[in-house]
Amino acid sequence: MTSATAAPMMGIRDEVAALKRERTLAVAAELFYERGYENTSLDMIAERMNVTKPFIYAHFTSKAELLAEICSRGIASALAALDGVLTTMPGNAAERLAEVGRRFVTAVLTSQRHIAIFSREEKNLAPADFQTISQMRRDFDAKLVKLLDQGVAAGLFSVQDTRLAALAIGGMVSWAYVWYRPEGRLTLEQTSEEMSKLILSLVGNQPAKRAAKTTVAKATPVRKKAAPKG
Amino acid sequence: MTSATAAPMMGIRDEVAALKRERTLAVAAELFYERGYENTSLDMIAERMNVTKPFIYAHFTSKAELLAEICSRGIASALAALDGVLTTMPGNAAERLAEVGRRFVTAVLTSQRHIAIFSREEKNLAPADFQTISQMRRDFDAKLVKLLDQGVAAGLFSVQDTRLAALAIGGMVSWAYVWYRPEGRLTLEQTSEEMSKLILSLVGNQPAKRAAKTTVAKATPVRKKAAPKG
DNA sequence: CCTACCGATCGGTAGG
DNA sequence: CCTACCGATCGGTAGG
Description:
The structure is a homodimer of 230-residue chains. The first copy, chain A, has 230 residues and is mainly alpha-helical. Chain A has helices spanning 12-35, 42-48, 53-57, 63-88, 93-110, 112-121, 127-153, 162-174, 176-179, 188-202.
């Protein structure tokens, strides 16, 4: 979990070591993403860096450590997105959830490789690493449930089962690593904005920003502007 | 894609061969799910069946063929769930989507192992198999987009971007393989029913089956029961 | 469809 | 941090 930019009080020696670790992890993430963990040998990683295998062992104890570091960064970024909103952002549950949605999607898509690797390579993690990382996932879910509960209590959300809704939200966002392409039809910003709206809709919170939109008129025999202005 | 139950006009010889294939695939799916594809040797599969490796090679040409068969059954079941509704079920887009949701979730959860394996082991598929299976996934998405478009055209759904919404729905349901446990809090039936409701909500279709439900009352200053029980 | 085996790959390390 | 190597695993097959 060393940061990519050198920490202030690091000696030159540590900075170099940190840089080598970072570079190794970046190359490993590329290859694990492209070819899969088991189909990537340490020799391949070393080759792409123009070094040899013992270079890697000078900075990591095992191949599995590379994997654990990559996976934990993936969920850490998602968790940080959630925590960032929960601990600093004011506003009601709907506003906070909208921002969580945007940041969560952004985190997943900017850590697309890491998230993909974690989803796929779970079974290749050392048991201890798997448990640590699973715990992060559970934390994430629990915090999201809490936010949904607050929204329900405030009458902003209409959800029968907040736990299921949280899992659904977590799934629709996490899954984005499968289909999102940076060069695709939607930019990262558009994707995160639209996904955030879908999340609000899922929890029964209508934006009602434009009265024209025929949001929920379905069962009402009388035609009226269904979704009242906020 | 041989069915697990013997086809009517099969000779006893073919029935036995089909049975052996099915049993092999079932054991392989168990092990691939528990341990991962690369961490499962053919000797392990054979051992769990009390045979030896050449038994497997008498019915399959390679380990990768086992994987391809397992993966393709996974998405085939999801695709069949969707097609079943689209080709036979009457009703408007909302009713059809609700049923798609129920059957899709049911398919994912009853094929949980297969879906998980496909999601994880993509990189271990032979290129040709990967393409075939990816095409099934694209078919699924395209059909779901079409259904959402119909709902929007009929004024039943309120979605800005039906393509994104379809991917979101596909994701929230597919992801259920990650968290669902048969012995968990919700039964398969409850899960599929509630997930289906979340899908309808995501596309902006309010059930409105019970007038009591405060679906979109958000901005109303009058306090009423916030989240009434269903 | 079993016994027995081959050939290749690869994580990890000794030695310097 | 490189050269060189070991030990183990494993997909696949020959031969019967």
